[in-house]
Amino acid sequence: MIGLKRAAKLQQKKHREAEKLFLAEGEALIRESPEPPQQLFDDAESLRRLSTLKTPTGPVGVFPFLDVPVAGLLADCDRIALLHGVQDPGNVGTMIRAAHAFDAGVALSYGCADLYNPKTVRATMGSIFHAPVARELDTGDFLRAAREAGFAAVAAMPEGEKSPRTLPGGPLIVVIGAEGGGLPEEVVARCDVPVSIPSRAASLNAAMAAAILLYEAYMRVLP
Question: Which CATH number covers residue 51?
């Protein structure tokens, strides 16, 4: 039994990490989970305490962490979005949703937004329960392990590089940097191909870039 006081503490990362539990808010999001929540709160007082929204959207469920190990991610996925230092929870959640849509996994480097931040969870629209995610990784170590497992890696760059149509076949890591900062040179140097998405806009946000590149990779394996 998880009481309201204990559940309310899960709004803070230190308590989530200690308990290995997180909150998911909203009937549609909770319904995406293949397993029922460990506890469900749906009365007005509980929603007032637990909701992070001005207008609560429905019940709040308590779920166990969903992390997968790096070895499992590399073994089970042919396409993986590696997010390097993406700090916006909305972007991280949207990228997880794109990964789910295009049958990919997600790797989050140190410095990314917390996977279990309520804003991140909400932005996944339930895909957090479907797309495998490994988190708090060293980017260099992950790329090294991916290469040993037979993956190629492409670095998403703002302009002047190869087209997404040139993505290599086979197991693929799509490396996405934070908006503004992008990818540091040492990360780009560890990738096989730098790619840029042709656009009339000055730039695309990180989540949009990830979605386009994952779609391009996904199209290559469709019958």
Answer: 3.30.1330.30
Interstrand relation of 133-137 and 105-109 (parallel, antiparallel or unpaired)? parallel
In this structure, what are the phi and psi dihedrals at residue 99, rounded to the nearest 5 degrees? -60, -45
Judgement on whether residues 170 and 117 belong to the same structural domain of the protein: yes
Q: How buried is 25 (Cβ within 10 angstroms: 0-12 exposed, 13-18 middle, 19+ buried)?
A: buried
Domain coverage including residue 42:
4-64
Residue type, 211: A
Confirm if 31 and 21 have CB atoms less than 8 A apart.
Answer: no
Contacts of 45 (CB under 8 A, 6+ apart): 4
**How far, in Å, CA of 176 to CA of 61, rounded?**
31
pLDDT in tens, 156-212: 988 767 888 888 889 999 999 987 778 999 999 999 999 988 888 767 788 999 999
Q: Could you tell me which residues come within 8 angstroms of residue 3 by beta carbon, excluding any fewer than 6 positions away?
A: none
- Give residue 17's Cα distance to chain centre: 17
List, for residues 56-86, the tens digit of each pLDDT value. Answer: 888 999 999 999 999 999 999 999 999 999 9
Strand 39-41: give its sheet, edge to edge.
Answer: 21-25, 60-64, 39-41
Residue 211: in which H helix or E strand, if any?
helix 206-219
In the sheet that holds 105-109, the strands lie side by side as 133-137, 105-109, 79-84, 172-177, 152-156, 193-195
What backbone phi and psi angles, to 5 degrees, belong to 199? -155, 145
Tokens of 164: 């997404």
